[in-house]
Amino acid sequence: MSTPPLSAQDADHLRLLSIFHYVVAGITALCSLIPVIHLVMGLAIVTGKLPMESQQGSEPFDPRLFGWFFVAFAGAFIAGGLTLAGFMAYAGRCLAQRRRHLLCMVVAGISCCFMPFGTVLGVFTLIVLLRPAVKAAFGAAPVTPA
């Protein structure tokens, strides 16, 4: 069974989506590095470079625990954001090469969480990827309505 050729409009949409995935991946990576300041502050608290003394004589908790809280949340946010940016860039490459249809769909859905750019990109990517001709171009079997 031969797949019908992709229309010029669908090919152009895939090319533009690929470019926009790279752009939004860069913006996502840049925004995910904002908590580096919290990471540095947390590490300064943990190592004692940023002393935290309470005004009372007895401290109810260890200030290093507060530092580890900063480190853990900043590290998780940075790692998650950079991972999402990496997957967005990889999905852009896969869109250009017309492969890994399911991965592109999943990344489009997850990128909807990154408002406003990821939402717009994710919705338009899902709309284009759900077209039967585009599915066929990816090698995915088109879904027939029941």
Our measurement of the CA-to-CA distance between the termini, rounded to an integer number of angstroms, reads 21 Å
Strand residue content: under 5%
Structural class by sheet pairing and helices: mainly alpha
Helical amount:
over 70%
The topology string of helices and strands comes to HHHHHH
How many beta-strand elements?
0
User: Strand count, sense and closure of the main sheet?
Assistant: none
Radius of gyration: 22 Å
Shape, principal axes of CA atoms: rod-shaped
Question: Please, what is the average pLDDT?
Answer: 87
What can you see in these coordinates?
The chain crosses the membrane at residues 20-45, 65-90, 102-130. This is Membrane protein. Keywords: Membrane, Transmembrane, Transmembrane helix. It comes from Stenotrophomonas chelatiphaga. This protein starts with 7 loop residues before the first helix and ends in an 8-residue tail after the last helix. 71% of the residues lie in helices and 0% in strands. It has helices spanning 8-32, 36-47, 63-97, 101-111, 117-129, 132-138. It is mainly alpha-helical and 146 residues long. The radius of gyration is 22 Å and the shape is rod-shaped. Helix 1 packs antiparallel against helix 5 (117-129) and helix 4 (101-111) runs antiparallel to helix 5 (117-129). The chain has 6 helices and no strands. The chain has one domain. The model has no long low-confidence stretch (mean pLDDT 87).
